[in-house]
Write a structure and sequence with these properties.
Length: 91
């Protein structure tokens, strides 16, 4: 995490907005499996507590990759909403 900056330093696990999505990581659910990091490395990284946090480079990630990362989470800890607040994942 040395040279990677957070999208929101006050709320490292979100919610944050990027283009048409709102992303939030439920830190109580996150188990640090890092599937999200493997699928969307410009969006997610694990912090010192092995919890997913959202990087400032999230804007460089495709929306499809972000949604795939949420779907890949084994405990559905990543919540994705559209710009109107409708939940995309998990439903």
């Amino acid at each position: 995490m040395d040279n990677q900056s957070l999208k929101d330093t006050n709320n490292p696990s979100g919610p944050v907005r990027t283009r048409n999505l709102k992303i939030k990581v439920d830190r109580d659910l996150c188990i640090g499996a890092a599937t999200c990091v493997a699928i969307a490395p410009k969006t997610f990284v694990l912090d010192s507590e092995a919890k997913a946090i959202i990087l400032d480079s999230v804007d460089q990630e495709t929306e499809a990759s972000i949604i795939d990362a949420a779907k890949g989470c084994p405990v559905a800890a990543i919540i994705i909403e559209d710009k109107k607040g409708n939940r995309i994942f998990p439903k």
